Amino acid sequence: MRRSFKFRLRPTRHQEIALTACLEDHRQLYNAALEHRRTVYAKAGVTVRYGDQSAELKHIRADDPEGQGRWSFSSQQATLRRLDRAFAAFFRRVHLGRAPGFPRFKGRSRFDTVEWPKDGDGCRWNSQPCHPTATYARFQGVGHIRVHQHRRVSGTVKTMSVKREGDRWFVIVSCDDVPAAPLPATGDAVGIDLGVAWLLTTSDGKHIPNPRHLAASAGRLAAAQQELTRKQRGSGRRRKTVTRIAALHAKVGRQRLDYAHKAANLLLRDHDLIVHEALQITKMTRRARPKPDDEGGFLPNGAAAKAGLNRSVLDAGWGVFLTILSYKAESAGRELIAVNPSGTSRTCAQCGHSAADNRVSQAEFRCIACGQAAHADVNAAINILRAGLALRQAEAA
Prior knowledge:
Layout (H helix, E strand, L loop, with lengths): L2 E8 L2 H32 L5 H6 L1 H7 L9 H24 L16 E4 L6 E3 L9 E5 L3 E6 L7 E10 L2 E9 L12 E6 L3 E5 L4 E3 L3 H4 L1 H12 L6 H35 L2 E5 L3 H4 L6 E2 L5 E2 L3 H14 L1 H15 L2 E5 L24 E3 L6 E3 H21 L1
Parallel strand pairs: 8-11, 11-14
Antiparallel strand pairs: 1-5, 1-7, 2-6, 3-4, 4-5, 6-7, 8-9, 9-10, 12-13, 15-16
Helix pairs in contact: 1-4, 6-7, 7-10
């Protein structure tokens, strides 16, 4: 299996300056390569590809030995491949008829990662054996940086990346051949219904609370944002406020990630099969469409209520939870099935009657055909489990 391990870096002041310069030079390389592609196509109608730009790196490094020449050749190639992937994604969206989203220039706040595609080529993991109790990562042009390694790295190290999050630096180590850690079989299957009132509800009636991390920090974030509007652009105080806001958002992200890990572990420990809804979260959290009237204005469309619901859905972190659940299930030897969520919330789990009137309220379900009453989320989780079992049986046949 391919797995990534993320650790906090503890750079010295000089190393932090070097890391910042490395990030900035790779950002400028990305923007220059994008400008090159745009200019050549606009003036000559010629498409510039990765191979063409990679061949020019030798001359770029020779002309700027104190800048671009300081860093690893392979890391600069990885930056050019990043741009090439952006163009590939752009053309793929064009062919599929989606909003294309042409690749754009990266500002300092939008370029936060540099990748080294091969361990030993401009980078080295745990490269200082003279410190048996400490872990170091070496990067060309930066040196040996102390790593806060809180867990063991397994498998074969393939790539390494440095990422800046606010005022913190992290190293991401991607490994191949990571051994699985199967859990003992339980013989149990469960369906889960994701929600906002509860993060998830299982088909056997258990509820896992939704901690609402963003809502808990909303007061401090609002105060910091208001303070930011009073700061002059380009000032040191504004930069400090921006850093504080980024730190608050990063804390919310870490809290959400930690809670998702714990919730996934609870499910995987007790169940061999987990069935969940195949949710399209991006579409679910789109803003309400405007409703034009006949006088050149717009009718009320519930945009404020929809925005509040979207904020609650994103705060719950369904996507983060399902991603973590997926890779943990693979490592633990558990089976994960995604089913179509259509009708699961309004279908009676007892008689199968489906109607919108069955859902009395957010928490109450009462079938208008058979009179069966249950918690609405539990009823939906039972339907999800049945759909998953039927899908597995159909695939086996």
